[in-house]
Amino acid sequence: MFRNILVATDGSALSDLAVSQAVELAAALHARLVVMTASEPFHLLTTEAEQIADTEDEYRIHMQHRADRILGAAAEKAASHGVETATVHVDSDHPHEAIIATATGEHCDLIVMASHGRRGFSALVLGSETTKVLTHSTIPVLVVRAEGMPAQPVTAAGHAFPGAAFSARRD
User: Fold this and answer.
1) pLDDT below 70 — which residues of the chain?
2) For the chain, which residues make up each domain, given as ranges?
3) CATH superfamily to which 4-167 belongs
């Protein structure tokens, strides 16, 4: 089944749920886990408060500390389940591209991501990195939805993963 699983996280509560699901799945399958997070590169012209208030060096230090905190928490959770884990932090203006490139480079055969399940106009306006990964990746994607979102439970190796929906793209 799946031997190398990538989970993308931004440190949010919903991403933490995806990390938990990925850790449990990796433990059940005796798979390796790659935990990745992406940071937006520094831009001189921006509306992002962190970039307006910081110099480029301060911003990079701030984003590295944020990534270390996010990746450290996920790695600790994986270690507590006996899961072999690698962590990756990338700078990217297009996180979906970074996710797919990291999954490909790490030879992952599954990507796990969270989704708020936005629909209609809000999905169009806000966009979704998860949707972009689903659209552009040839690697199967397991989508973990917010609590209360309808999804078919995913079962693997005798374990149920409620709140997860599996999508495999076929070209």
Assistant:
1) 43-54, 117-127, 147-171
2) 4-167
3) HUPs (3.40.50.620)
